[in-house]
Design goal:
Number of strands: 8
Strand order of the largest sheet: 3-4-2-5-1-6-7-8
Strand content: 15-25%
Radius of gyration: 20 Å
Structural class: alpha/beta
Helix content: 40-55%
Largest sheet: 8 strands, mixed
Number of helices: 12
Length: about 270
């Protein structure tokens, strides 16, 4: 059975798409799947840095497509996580050097080698986006609970549907205190506007910054709320779609209610 090709996109940059790609890939590999993550941002690669593999790059995705090396030569194996491999982007080539038909050829090869292949899509909806979605089976749209992010995500979702790709949504960098105060949109607001299935909710977590700076997978940090969220997202992608989605606000609202009740009791006494 061939593996899945999943594009991770957002429309705009700065929403945490590359961290999402690296984290879900690492989580699935830790769960025993053979996983490839591909940086499609030609000229502006970052996935290698987030994964802590920047010093081991010899070949890149353009080298593979242009026949300068074999796929196995360009894939970088993560030394900490078995079954996790990176195919980096080129920093020196023009972003238009890859054509959609090149991606179809590459993805057909990747399907035979890996259970899951994640394509870290470049920001925007130009050639890089078209290349990334050309051979994708599924799409994950990353969105922050902000109006500009939602608007860009909505445009990308329309383009994905036009290519018969049904997207799923990750709402990233949720700050529960701001949502509770009404200063940030809730995930329910985001889902209502975008009208696609929710794959997961990821709370803002400073451990993500540390993870990106050190190249340490966030999913290996047991105390990280974001890491736990990514592990659950990976399980949903791997045949457990009914795994409950934990609302970052739920626990806080329970304690808030308890606090009110305890306050009343104290006052009555």
């Amino acid at each position: 059975m061939d593996g899945k090709i999943i594009v991770v996109t957002s429309g705009k940059g700065g929403v945490g798409k590359t961290t999402v790609t690296a984290s879900i890939g690492a989580a699935l590999a830790l769960q025993g799947k053979r996983v490839a993550v591909i940086d499609m941002d030609i000229g502006l690669r970052n996935l290698d840095v987030v994964m802590g593999l920047e010093n081991r790059i010899v070949f890149n995705v353009v080298d593979v497509i242009q026949g300068r090396c074999k796929l196995k030569q360009a894939m970088i194996k993560d030394r900490r996580i078995d079954n996790l491999f990176l195919l980096p982007a080129s920093q020196s080539d023009d972003k238009n050097v890859i054509k959609p038909e090149n991606m179809t050829w590459l993805c057909n090869k990747l399907r035979k080698e890996f259970d899951f292949t994640f394509l870290d899509c470049p920001a925007g909806i130009e050639q890089g986006f078209k290349n990334a979605i050309e051979a994708a089976d599924e799409a994950v749209v990353v969105c922050m609970p902000e109006v500009s992010s939602i608007r860009d995500a909505d445009r990308v979702i329309g383009l994905l549907y036009s290519r018969s790709i049904t997207p799923k949504l990750i709402v990233n960098r949720i700050i529960p205190k701001m949502v509770a105060r009404g200063d940030m949109l809730s995930h329910k607001d985001v889902v209502e506007v975008l009208s696609i299935d929710l794959l997961g909710l990821v709370e803002m977590d400073e451990a993500v910054v540390i993870s990106s700076n050190t190249g340490t997978p966030i999913v290996m940090q047991k105390e990280s709320k974001a890491g736990m969220a990514f592990n659950r997202i990976a399980m949903r992608l791997d045949g457990h779609p009914d795994l409950p989605i934990e609302d970052p606000l739920a626990q806080k609202s329970i304690w808030k209610k308890l606090g009110i009740k305890m306050g009343r009791k104290k006052g009555a006494a």
